[in-house]
Design brief:
Two copies of one chain form a homodimer. Chain A is an all-alpha fold. Chain A has one domain (about 50-200): Tetracycline Repressor, domain 2 (Orthogonal Bundle), CATH 1.10.357.10. Chain A is built from ten helices and no strands. Chain A starts with a helix and ends with a helix.
Chain lengths: ~200, ~200
């Protein structure tokens, strides 16, 4: 039973991520999401209290997807370079697999003066911020280790971290799947960006 | 007289860029912009036919600012590495100087399924796209030259171009001026990012 609920929950999240991506986080309605599922609004409201709660859940899920993929490949026995390269490859592959979620997050990267009206809105913003920071800290630790060991150039750590993560996230901006895409294209992009990211650190 | 009109035009554009940045491209109204100028809506409508025209003008101006700064520093007598590094430094400095415009552009990087209703909307989108591409082509040409000469790694040119430009634009995401910012911080960031961008190409 709980598995069924969980499946339904994730099915709704996936549909919501796609609708928010396509129509915009301001424009997509619960009606649009229900329509794309061929379902009723009631089914959605059974899982999520409001449109805002659903959007928050999509944004919270994005760093969770990448964290779950990247954390297990981290290995302190590897050099920071090798460690970073593995993490970067894994990160980019995870982003391609869950692209709509990351495109939705992108729509919140704009530094708007947010007016989080309710306490629960503010609590959700804090959870999203913590999840994002917690994930970024995985990369912060390996970049820091590389600077300490002298493998990576010593430069402002936060500037390095955020800039290199934006480089690894570049496909979120310009990539959309295309039917005529060469086979293995996303894997090739992942390798190229992991190489570029590592080169930018050294 | 035409200079006066032009000054007023640019003053309105600056105010609009700041309002769109702070309040969001969907939320900021002509009223908000007029209020921030201590002026009437009539003055704005004297220069711009609509809120949409004003937003389009802000987005069109962003690549114009960077193009005007970067084109003059390009020098075919320099090596592609030196040429790229100069262009990157100049680009980042121009972005810091006209940050609100670039933060507004960022809000349009999301790949929404746009519904450009009118012919003039579509014409404006085409002008913005052309301005952006025309500017990017400056970097495309120098990266291409570097790959041809063997100075830069040979890899997918479009992936390289768009990813390295996103790296150079990283401050648009995470930077906002702060009163307690160390002196020379933006210049230091520009050097670091130009170095990282060049390293990512080699």
């Amino acid at each position: 039973m709980s598995e069924q609920i969980s499946d339904s929950h994730h099915e709704i999240l996936d549909a919501a991520a796609k609708c928010f991506m396509k129509l915009g986080v301001n424009a997509a309605s619960v009606d649009d999401i229900a329509h794309s599922l061929g379902s009723t609004k009631g089914r959605i409201y059974h899982h999520f209290a409001s449109r805002g709660a659903l959007l928050g859940a999509v944004r919270l899920q994005a760093p969770e997807f990448t964290r779950r993929a990247v954390a297990p490949v981290m290995d302190d026995n590897l050099s920071p370079s090798q460690n970073f390269h593995n993490m970067a490859l894994t990160h980019i592959a995870a982003v391609f697999e869950t692209l709509p979620y990351h495109k939705v997050v992108l729509q919140h990267y704009t530094g708007l003066e947010g007016k989080s009206a309710t306490e629960s809105d503010r609590a959700m913003e804090a959870r999203i911020r913590d999840a994002k920071r917690g994930y970024e800290d995985l990369f912060r630790s390996v970049i820091h280790a590389g600077m300490q060991s002298g493998e990576f150039r010593c430069q402002n750590l936060s500037v390095t971290l955020h800039s290199v993560l934006i480089l690894l996230n570049a496909p979120v901006f310009w990539y959309s799947p295309r039917p005529d895409e060469p086979q293995g294209f996303t894997a090739q992009v992942a390798r190229q960006l992991a190489d570029m990211g590592l080169a930018a650190l050294i």
